[in-house]
Amino acid sequence: MNLARLDLNLVVALRALLEERNVTRAGQRVGLSQPAMSAALSRLRRHFADDLLARVGGHYELTALGQVLLDRTSTAYDVLERLFSSQAEFDPSRETREFTLVASDYAVTVFGAELARVVHEEAPGIRLRFAQAPTTVVDDTATLLSAVDGLLMPHGVISDFPATDLYEDRWVLVVAEDHPGVEDRLTRQDLARLPWVTYQRTYDAPAVRQLGMLGVTPRVEVSVDSFQMLPLLVAGTRRIALIPARLARLMAPLAAVRVLEPPYEAVPLREAMWWHPVHTHDAAHLWLRETAARVGRRLGGDA
Q1: Is 167 helix (H, G, I), strand (E, B) or coil?
Q2: Are 9 and 43 in contact (CB under 8 A)?
Q3: What is the pLDDT of residues 209-257, one digit of tens each?
Q4: Does residue 200 sit in helix, strand or coil?
């Protein structure tokens, strides 16, 4: 396809038409008259050889292709918006904009809170938005990264994208403060016999993955999509959970749990910030990544 022959304004029109499913409302949304938006729809129909919007009774519905294009158009719009907002220079003390970072609740608690404090002090016009990673992050990483400013995730989950290391952490186990069957240490036999609470997302199940390498199948009683909930679901029970040490230190005083070392050599956790290559040379992103790396160094390597 010859992109030079395409009118990129049609991306704006296409997104509005697919989301509004109404020519008049789509035109009002993007500042075009009803005849101008109708003309844009005609051009889009010719290009795709499809009606995109089909009249059903007194309203329009998306065709099968229109439904496919709905998400793709939103992603393309975000990419174009970020592309054309790229800057050669960036002054954080004077700029006003928002950065979106995809991160787990663990990363936001341990790292994001400190990053937000630094940004507040150094760049008062900058806003940070933290969003939870979708379950498709591994299967469609490029699409996710093209629509956000960065992804906070440990090494070992995704690859083939640029990243800057932030800090290191290690895995520890938490048990109830008054656990009747555990004193000051856990054995591998304990890992097999005691019930578990696990952080369970389709792309990342650290407890199950690490125990599997030991030949242990954890007896999972509860799984939850939140690292911060793990100690709370352990407290007052016979359960155990695997949790990053930095978060364990923060959460232990809030939940009646004890922190114990694993009875095996746990794989260390190296948190990094990943981004799409389209952002690599953008001045604003360079500032964001350098600031994130500086905050990571401030946390230090001792977990």
Answers
A1: strand
A2: no
A3: 777 778 888 888 999 989 999 999 999 999 999 999 999 999 988 899 9
A4: coil
